[in-house]
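User: Could you go from structure to sequence for me? I need the amino acid at each position, not a summary. Structure tokens:
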């Protein structure tokens, strides 16, 4: 059998050719002005694209049927997107407002836990590419979840109200989004699964029209992510590309408050002989800082010290926390590795108790760094740095069951 013998051959081939053309156009965005010309930055941009190419059809086809929902791990150590925080895990499931679903599993011990029903996406200026752009309709935080003594829980989504764990949906509901936020390396992730309650038949195989639609969605996804990052947060997200190395005020939109967090993002540039000190008061709640690349993709948090939380940070005697961003190890405990990148973005999140704080910054020469830090600054030997790397490595793998 040859091309043209099938009634859908021409439509399928045309859709595939267009997807390939979109992928090629997406690759051209690697060389945008925002991305430096160094090999490290060019490679990171292509990794950003190829990592998300790997999930394009998971989102567009394999998990797309809302009658047969699947929890899809959106980000991880080998896939970064959307200003992802190194100490969050992100999962989503496509749902609809007509069906009723059940989410079951073990709560785990993550300090922050959040399940959110997202509503319609309205494309237009100021709206991020798929699968973003929707807003929370209903929200449940960890302290609101009724959990058995052994950690087991059952949460219903949609359908008639069921107590005590239930989230309503609307006719426009389209996605379930689950975030877990971790503080210490020994915290355990929730183990969960989702199902449509009234499932009565096997999932049908995709028809040609579903495959064609998926190719179009995937093509828009890869072009959208390469076009929108970092342009979108620079234009709409409060990130000031014209004032590097200074944090804007920490803020929370209505959508942020529904998600239970406040956020701020700082664009940074650092010369080879410079270091950046980020300092703030130690404060209540779960806060996290993650160093990210140009495309707002978290750095290599499986191996490198690119993220910090309260449980893993040293506090100086004056009650201040000082993190040192540098291209090479300054032997300071609170070192933020840059991976050798000359520019990137640093994101701050605050959740749970207390209030977010103002974050100050100072750029200094690397050789003058110790004179700019308190005398009691916590330091690490080479052996202690290696031990910290192993602790991080085991902790991250535990979160993702790697």
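Assistant: Here is the amino acid at each position, in order:
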């Amino acid at each position: 059998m040859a091309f043209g013998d099938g009634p859908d051959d021409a439509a399928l081939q045309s859709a595939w050719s267009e997807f390939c053309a979109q992928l090629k156009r997406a690759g051209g965005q690697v060389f945008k002005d925002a991305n430096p010309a160094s090999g490290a930055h060019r490679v990171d941009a292509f990794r950003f694209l190829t990592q998300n190419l790997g999930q394009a059809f998971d989102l567009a086809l394999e998990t797309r049927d809302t009658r047969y929902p699947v929890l899809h791990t959106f980000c991880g150590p080998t896939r970064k997107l959307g200003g992802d925080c190194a100490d969050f895990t992100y999962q989503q499931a496509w749902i609809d407002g007509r069906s009723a679903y059940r989410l079951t599993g073990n709560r785990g011990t993550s300090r922050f836990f959040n399940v959110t029903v997202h509503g319609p996406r309205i494309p237009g200026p100021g709206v991020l590419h798929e699968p973003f752009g929707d807003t929370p309709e209903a929200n449940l935080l960890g302290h609101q979840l009724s959990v058995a003594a052994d950690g087991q829980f059952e949460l219903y989504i949609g359908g008639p109200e069921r107590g005590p764990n239930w989230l309503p949906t609307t006719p426009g509901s389209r996605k379930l989004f689950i975030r877990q936020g971790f503080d210490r390396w020994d915290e355990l992730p929730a183990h969960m699964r989702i199902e449509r309650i009234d499932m009565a038949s096997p999932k049908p195989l995709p028809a040609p029209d579903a495959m064609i639609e998926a190719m179009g969605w995937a093509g828009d996804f890869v072009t959208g992510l390469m076009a929108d990052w970092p342009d979108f947060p620079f234009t709409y997200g409060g990130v000031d590309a014209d004032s590097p190395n200074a944090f804007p005020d920490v803020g929370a939109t209505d959508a942020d408050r529904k998600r239970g967090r406040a956020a701020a993002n700082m664009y940074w540039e650092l010369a080879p002989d410079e270091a950046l000190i980020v300092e703030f008061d130690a404060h209540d709640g779960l806060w996290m800082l993650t160093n990210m690349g140009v495309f707002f993709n978290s750095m290599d948090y499986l191996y490198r010290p690119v993220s910090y939380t309260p449980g893993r940070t040293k506090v100086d005697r004056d009650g201040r926390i000082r993190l040192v961003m540098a291209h090479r190890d300054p032997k300071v405990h609170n070192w933020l590795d840059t991976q050798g990148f000359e520019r990137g973005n640093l994101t701050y999140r605050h959740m749970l108790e207390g209030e977010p704080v103002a974050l100050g910054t100072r750029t200094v020469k690397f050789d003058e760094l110790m004179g700019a830090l308190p005398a009691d600054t916590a330091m690490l030997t080479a052996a202690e740095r290696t031990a910290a790397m192993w602790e991080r490595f085991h902790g991250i793998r535990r979160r993702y069951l790697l």
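One structural detail worth keeping in mind: The CA atoms of residues 281 and 320 lie 4 Å apart.
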